[in-house]
Write a structure and sequence with these properties.
Strand 3, helix 1 and strand 4 form a beta-alpha-beta unit. Helix 1 packs parallel to helix 2. Helix content is 25%, strand content 35%. It is of the alpha+beta class. A six-stranded mixed β-sheet has the order 1-2-3-4-6-5, covered by helices on one side. The chain is globular. It is built from three helices and six strands; from the N terminus they run βββαβαββα.
């Protein structure tokens, strides 16, 4: 964890063999009451290996523990895989708001069972 001030969380991922090298960063910031904006950035060579999903899962769980009711994010509208990951991790209704070639999504955080949280 890099920081935790005023509801902001940031997580940095490094490979075990190269702990000085950052390959991914994820963060949440307060957006509006009960809503946090989430961001995930994964180095190109590490994409499609589950790193972004892991970051999103950890940040989503942190938000649940902090009482956040929904997450919001903005991405390119063609990023269908990312939209699917957000839908799975939030486990609640997902709303889309198009912004030209990007889309703003807001996902309601559903409570997870203890079995789901261990996955």
């Amino acid at each position: 964890m890099l920081s935790r001030t005023a509801g902001t969380d940031a997580l940095l991922v490094t490979p075990a063999a190269e702990p000085e090298r950052a390959i991914a960063l994820g963060s949440t910031h307060p957006h509006s009451p009960g809503v946090a904006e989430i961001g995930v950035l994964v180095e190109d060579t590490w994409q499609r290996r589950g790193v972004g999903r892991l970051l999103l899962r950890r940040l989503t769980e942190r938000c649940r523990l902090q009482g956040v009711a929904a997450l919001t994010a903005q991405t390119l509208s063609g990023r269908r895989a990312l939209l699917g990951v957000v839908r799975e991790e939030a486990a609640g209704p997902l709303e889309y708001g198009p912004l030209s070639d990007t889309v703003r999504m807001t996902a309601t955080l559903a409570a997870r069972s203890s079995a789901d949280a261990q996955l």
